[in-house]
């Protein structure tokens, strides 16, 4: 099969807080078409496999990393966090298994999670030299998977007060209408600020994630919450809710390169 071509390169958002290469990929710079245009990095959403593979190659090149060093998990909206270590070649490896968070202390390895509305969280321990990526939808946020990732790093010696976190593009409160029951549940767990009341309650997921991280020991000023809303910005992001499920996936990655 011939490799599809396009001239643009992957674009991603970054946080000034993180001292290592990382990114929250946008739609720009891939070869997928239709609802997956263009940088779809999800293999299980109905897109052509050869295009998704080419998109991964482009991402690795833009990230300045080896494709074989990319570590991913099969995401299941749980709270399991796995240790990962990549290889120093250019062959994309299968996922590590079912989990929603992963971390590494392997030099040159990079860890990533896929999203299309859910909250991507990247964690860096500059002293202990560990990095982590977390996928936190409403279920994962309810399970406080970000805190589980902080604990996993802590078990290897990372001190929570030294961790740096970036909370990436996701569906924001403007677009995330939820049931009154879910609103009540989150208000009880994370405080009144995580729900905006209107005709229907709207959930502020990144705020809940930040509350989880601070409760786990991170300093509030060490948590950078990006303001981009995946559902608002059709040109820039995939959105599962806006596109009624027929859409691509972003990858959100952080490299172990100190
Ligand atoms: Zn929005």
TrEMBL record:
Pfam families: Cu-oxidase_4 (PF02578). GO terms for molecular function: copper ion binding; hydrolase activity; S-methyl-5-thioadenosine phosphorylase activity. Keywords: Hydrolase, Metal-binding, Transferase, Zinc. InterPro entries: Cu_polyphenol_OxRdtase (IPR003730), Cu_polyphenol_OxRdtase_sf (IPR038371), Cytotoxic_necrot_fac-like_cat (IPR011324). The keyword Zinc applies. It catalyses: adenosine + phosphate = alpha-D-ribose 1-phosphate + adenine; inosine + phosphate = alpha-D-ribose 1-phosphate + hypoxanthine; S-methyl-5'-thioadenosine + phosphate = 5-(methylsulfanyl)-alpha-D-ribose 1-phosphate + adenine; adenosine + H2O + H(+) = inosine + NH4(+). Belongs to the purine nucleoside phosphorylase YfiH/LACC1 family. This is Purine nucleoside phosphorylase. The gene is pgeF.
């Amino acid at each position: 099969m011939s490799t599809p071509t396009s001239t643009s390169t992957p674009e991603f958002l970054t946080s000034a807080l993180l001292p290592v290469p990382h990114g929250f990929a946008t739609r720009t710079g891939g070869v997928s078409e239709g609802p997956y245009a263009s940088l779809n990095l999800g293999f299980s959403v109905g897109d052509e496999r050869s295009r998704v593979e080419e998109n991964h190659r482009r991402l690795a090149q833009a990230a300045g990393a080896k494709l074989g060093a990319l570590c991913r998990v099969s995401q299941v909206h749980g709270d399991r966090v796995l240790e990962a270590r990549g290889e120093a070649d250019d062959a994309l490896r299968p996922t590590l298994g079912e989990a929603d968070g992963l971390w590494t202390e392997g030099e040159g390895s990079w860890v990533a999670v896929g999203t299309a509305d859910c909250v991507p969280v990247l964690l860096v321990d500059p002293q202990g030299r560990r990095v982590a990526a977390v996928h936190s939808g409403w279920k994962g946020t309810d399970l406080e998977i970000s805190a589980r990732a902080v604990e996993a790093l802590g078990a290897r010696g990372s001190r929570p007060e030294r961790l740096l976190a970036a909370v990436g593009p996701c569906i924001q409160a403007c677009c995330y209408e939820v049931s009154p029951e879910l609103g009540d549940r989150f208000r009880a767990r994370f405080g009144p600020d995580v729900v905006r009341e209107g005709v229907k309650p709207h959930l502020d997921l990144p705020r809940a994630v930040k509350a989880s991280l601070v409760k786990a020991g991170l300093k509030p000023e060490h948590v950078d919450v990006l303001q981009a809303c995946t559902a608002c910005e059709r040109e820039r992001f995939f959105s599962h809710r806006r596109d009624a499920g027929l859409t691509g996936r972003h990858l959100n990655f952080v490299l172990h390169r100190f």
